[in-house]
Amino acid sequence: MGTSGWRYASWRGDFYPKGLVQRRELEHLATRMNSVELNGSFYSLQRPESYDRWRDATPAGFRFAVKGGRYITHMAGPDKLTAGIENFFASGVTRLGDRLGPILWQFPTRRRFDPAQLEAFCAALPRSYDGRRLRHALEPRHESFADPACTHILNRHRIALVASDGAREWPTLFMDRATDATAGLVYVRLHGPHELYHGGYSQKQLAHWASVVRELATRGERKTVRDTYVYFDNDADGRAPFDALALAELMAR
């Protein structure tokens, strides 16, 4: 349970204690929750020493979900897909070591479901790198992905379909209830209840998502509990960390 990113000016003097130096913000966040999305990697390749520093700022058991680069998901053509993915992982992602959680891939809202394109994308994602196992999650944002063929492709490649609350800007997609969740993990992103990145979730809305997460985590014939990652991205008004803590409390009951 955590937030999408951690470096926000509006959190200072509120979620972060007044006077806390910026370089210790991640360390503070890691005392309150057990995971965070690393989203700077979406915008540009990060330095290996940055991954080292983030790893060392967090305790054992903490997990980073690392957001795949937008060059790969938004810009690169099929002929540059493999090279783009290789460059992304070569930048030092696996230096997070045992703090490394799933890799998140976010498709743009304009991207429609194309079975051949999705198959090629999934097949290009590595299952391990530098000796470390990798797990992947996909957040499509177009209604055309609500297609059993999408579920079939993701299941076959063991890639998780993200349940994404986008304030009705895009559909919230779920796996077919008759099908085990892909990749053995559940991934949920909550971007805002009424406006993207703004506002806070009410107690009633948080209770709803607690119920959804519990159901997703035990879906399938075996009813085994899967690794579950939930991130709040409603950071513009500073509500994300408080909503994450509130949902974690509800889930613990």
Spatial strand order of the main sheet: 8-7-4-3-2-1-11-10-9
CATH topology: TIM Barrel
SS class: alpha/beta
Largest sheet: 9 strands, parallel
CATH superfamily: Protein of unknown function UPF0759
Q: Under the CATH scheme, which architecture would be assigned?
A: Alpha-Beta Barrel
- Rg, nearest Å: 17 Å
Helix content: 25-40%
Strand content: 15-25%
Shape: globular
How many separate domains? Answer: 1
User: Class in CATH?
Assistant: Alpha Beta
Low-confidence stretches: none
N to C succession of SSEs: EHEHHEHHEHEEEHEEEHEH
Q: Determine the oligomeric state from the structure.
A: single chain
Produce the secondary structure layout.
Elements: E1 2-4, H1 25-32, E2 35-38, H2 40-43, H3 48-56, E3 63-67, H4 70-75, H5 81-90, E4 100-106, H6 115-124, E5 128-129, E6 132-133, E7 136-139, H7 148-157, E8 160-161, E9 163-165, E10 185-190, H8 203-217, E11 227-232, H9 240-252
Helix pairs in contact: 6-7, 8-9
